[in-house]
Structure prediction request, 459 residues.
Amino acid sequence: MANTQNKTKFLEDLSNAVDQFIDRSFTHVITISHNDADGISCLHIIQNLLYKMHLNYDYFIYNRSVSWENYLNGILSSRQTDKNAFIFTDVGSNLKELIPIIKNRKEIFFILDHHEVEDEIHIDELPENLFFINPTIYGYDGLEHIAGATLTHMFAKQVKPSIIKYGWLTVIGIAGDSLKPMDKLQSFNREVYEELLEEDLIEDKEGLILFGSMHESIKNGLKYSILPFLSQFGGESDQKITSFLSSLPINPRTNLIDLNQSEVELIQKKADFNSFGHFAILPHKLGLLRFTFEHALLLNILCFKNISAALSIIQLKSATRYAKGIYSEYIQNLSRNLRILSNEIPHHETEKAIFMEVKGKIPPSSWSDTASFSAVNELFNPKKVLFLGGPEKKSGTIKLSIRCSRNYLDNNKNRGVNKIITSIKKELGGVGGGHKLAGGIRLSNPSYNILKKRADEFI
Prediction:
């Protein structure tokens, strides 16, 4: 990634890709996206664009559990034509894997991604049938500055300006990827957010932020907040939290978003935390789907539980009973897992790494999110890299969710998780990737044992 931001060159590349997509008059488009809230938001933006353009299309979801070669073998047709296009959203920066495949095809490929490129690739030497749009190569941070949905929205709106009415999808992607209050957004995320506010597609609210439970009562908000995770309340008994609120006195059943400013200030003062800021709601939706962070979280949950439900719920006005049940179970388990992790002694610790082997204590489906929210809440030493996971029965490998903090990046010359994963893969093999702050890898058991012994070398 470049050290300095070059907005002009990035926007030139984006406009060129848009022109190519419009001018080539494709007859069929295949879109491939990531299986998380950001990726699903991207997918729906592109689907709406293709529908408006009256283009035939198919879609696929990629979860990074297999190599691109194996994945695309089942998708690429033996009949090749430059009238067919592929659009990758929120995936596709593994260029070392993809270029050998793409350059031998006749189809035209568009990659809209915000993950850092793993390998040294000269952009000028890309195949003629590949249009690679990635702001990280022009100095932008794929987490801080631009979500996958933000990039996809910018592309789609240039192709067809009326697509802006689906811009609310973008904010779901931003909320799911940034894990930040809306007043903390930067760069393109901020620009698009303000644009959507002007279009009245979303509403900006100010108040107490207890992400994960913004649609709940203040009692449940304190108990099930995952950002911030409040160690004095998270996973605690209703009686303890009710007693605390009643002593203020504040009705525990008061809706979180209905608290007045004096009540918010009192709660924060007495509980000794500060979580006041801006959050976004979707005025055309109800219940937990009104709140963009909660909507994104539900999508992330469903992506691993029921991908069909994830793809459909984004179109609904309110969550189904099935989705509400899964969400409630998830949020309760995550708050419990964060409490476990906050009290857990690392199984293996080096000078630069912490290995948390949580099989049997936390289910594999929860490893990624538990790692993410433990990192953002700094439940482990922020000067070290967290490796959380264990054996995964389904794949027969060791699955690791790897996280670091902003504090770590600032003190390690911006060498983040993505580069650590690249170093591991080069010597030990495995499948995985990610951002500076977050990523994942699957390794064989022998490779994992070597990693534990030599973790500081790879870091």
The chain has 17 helices and 13 strands. The mean pLDDT is 92.
